[in-house]
Design goal:
With 395 residues, this protein is of the alpha+beta class. The protein has helices at 35-52, 54-57, 99-105, 111-116, 129-145, 183-190, 258-268, 276-289, 296-313, 317-330, 359-369, 371-392; strands at 16-17, 28-29, 75-81, 84-91, 94-97, 118-122, 157-162, 165-171, 175-177, 198-206, 209-216, 220-227, 236-242, 293-294, 345-350, 353-358. It has a domain at 75-122. The chain binds zinc ion.
Length: 395
C-alpha cells in the first residue's frame, strides 16, 4: 500500500478520517496515507477547514469542541441592493456591514440603506481556498477508500514534497454547489425541519466523469469532479452517518404489564422476551452498539412519509402531480430508493415529455443562467440548520 501523497510504502498504520474528526466524522481508513503525511495534512488542510465550521460545531451537543469558540463571528453573505449583488457581513440575521456598498455610495450606510438590502445567501462557498481543499480532500479520501486507482485522482492535485515531508498541497478539482432541482429533492431538503444531523457521501460515475457528492451537516452540499477520464467500472457507492454523539446510558426500563415489553421492543428494536433480565440486557447491548452509520434510504423515507400528508392538504394540484412524478423517479413502490439515481440524475420536463439528466451537469447550466437561485437554496439550507441548532440548545 502506497501513501497517496508521498508515494512511500505505508509501513506503519495511520488512521485517516474520511470526513474530518473535528466535524464528527466516524469513517476511517488506514489505506490512504503514511503517518507523516497524515500529520502534515492536518496542519496544511484540516485545521483551517474545520475552523470554518466552528460556529456550527461548537453549537452541536456532545460534538468534540474545536478551539475557536470566542465570540459570535460575523459571516460573509450576499445581499441584493437595487438589483445588484454585494458582499455583506451578517451576525445572525442582522447586516453589520457592506464595504462594497460603502465604496459605491461614497458614504456610511444609514439604517434605511441597510433595510433595503435583501440577504440572499451566505458566502460559504467555493471561493474560499481552505474550504475547497477540505471538501476536495473528503472526496479524494472517499474515492481512495473505494479503490479508485490514484492515477485517476492525481491529475488535479498539486503536491509539494520537501525533505521527504509533505510541505504543500492543493486540490484543483472543479467544485459545484448543489441545489435541489426537482420537487422531490426540494421538499426532502427544505420541506421539513431537520430531524437528525448527518454527513452523506456518494461516489458515482456518469460515463467518463467521476463525481463525488459531499453533504456535510445535511447543509453544505457539493459536487466534486474527481476525474473526466474515468474508464473504470460503473460505480455508485454511498456512505451516510449521524453526527451527534448518542447518549448510551442504560434507560430505566420498567415492565409493569406484558404490553410494556412490546412497546420497549419497538422503541429499541430488540426482540421481545418475557425473561425480563435478558430483555433489559438486550436493550443495554443494543444502545451500546448503535452504529453512527445509517442508511440514506431510511432518512429519505422518513422525510417523504412526513411530507405526504402535508401535500394531500395543500391546494396546488399541479405541484402535487409533479412531486408524485419525481417520487416515482426516485422511489419504487415500497418507498425504497431506486438504485443509482439519487443525486446522480434529476427528472425534468420538456413539453409533456419527462426526461432525466445528469444532476451536476444541470447544476452547471443553472450556475450560468441563474446563480442567485443556487444562493437562495444554500441560504435556506443554512437557515434550516440555524433553526435546528438554536432549538436543540434548549433541549
Ligand atoms: Zn506519505
Amino acid at each position: 500500500m502506497e501513501c497517496l501523497y508521498c508515494n512511500c510504502k505505508i509501513l506503519k498504520e495511520s488512521k485517516e478520517h474520511i470526513i474530518q474528526n473535528a466535524l464528527g466524522g466516524h469513517l476511517v481508513s488506514t489505506e490512504i496515507c503514511c503517518p507523516e503525511c497524515n500529520n502534515a495534512i492536518q496542519k496544511l488542510i484540516d485545521d483551517e477547514f474545520t475552523n470554518i465550521f466552528a460556529p456550527i460545531t461548537t453549537r452541536i451537543q456532545n460534538l468534540k469542541k474545536t478551539s475557536n469558540t470566542k465570540g459570535k463571528p460575523s459571516t460573509a453573505a450576499y445581499g441584493l441592493y437595487h438589483g445588484e449583488t454585494y458582499e455583506i457581513f451578517i451576525k445572525g440575521n442582522t447586516i453589520v456591514s457592506c464595504p462594497q456598498l460603502n465604496k459605491k455610495l461614497k458614504r456610511n450606510l444609514t439604517s434605511e440603506d441597510i433595510d433595503e438590502i435583501e440577504i440572499i445567501g451566505y458566502k460559504f462557498d467555493v471561493e474560499n481556498r481552505s474550504f475547497i481543499n477540505g471538501i476536495c480532500k473528503i472526496a479524494t479520501n472517499f474515492a481512495v477508500m473505494n479503490k479508485v486507482p490514484v492515477n485517476n485522482l492525481k491529475d488535479k492535485m498539486t503536491i509539494e514534497i520537501s525533505d521527504d515531508i509533505l510541505a504543500g498541497i492543493e486540490f484543483k478539482y472543479p467544485v459545484l454547489p448543489f441545489a435541489a432541482l426537482n420537487h422531490f429533492d426540494l421538499l426532502m431538503e427544505t420541506g421539513t425541519p431537520i430531524e437528525t444531523l448527518y454527513h452523506h457521501l456518494i461516489l458515482f460515475n456518469i460515463g467518463d466523469l467521476l463525481w463525488c457528492y459531499v453533504d456535510l451537516f445535511n447543509t453544505f452540499q457539493y459536487y466534486i469532479l474527481l476525474s473526466d477520464k474515468w474508464d473504470g467500472a460503473h460505480i455508485y457507492t454511498s456512505y451516510c452517518q449521524k453526527i451527534e454523539r448518542f447518549d448510551r446510558t442504560p434507560p430505566n426500563v420498567r415492565v409493569r404489564k406484558p404490553k410494556d415489553i412490546l412497546t420497549y421492543s419497538q422503541m429499541y428494536k430488540v426482540n421481545p422476551t418475557t425473561d425480563i433480565d435478558i430483555f433489559k440486557k438486550s436493550i443495554v447491548d443494543k444502545i451500546k452498539k448503535t452504529p453512527y452509520e445509517c442508511d440514506i434510504n431510511d432518512i429519505v423515507k422518513d422525510n417523504v412519509n412526513i411530507l405526504s400528508p402535508i401535500l394531500d392538504f395543500s391546494g396546488d394540484k399541479e405541484m402535487i402531480l409533479e412531486y408524485l412524478t419525481d417520487v416515482s423517479f426516485y422511489q419504487n413502490e415500497d418507498g425504497d430508493l431506486n438504485a443509482g439515481v439519487f443525486r446522480r440524475f434529476s427528472p425534468f420536463k420538456t413539453g409533456e415529455q419527462l426526461r432525466f439528466g445528469s444532476y451536476p451537469d444541470m447544476i452547471h447550466d443553472l450556475m450560468n443562467d441563474n446563480q442567485n437561485s443556487i444562493r437562495k437554496y444554500t441560504f435556506s439550507k443554512f437557515e434550516r440548520l440555524n433553526q435546528y441548532l438554536s432549538f436543540s440548545k434548549y433541549m
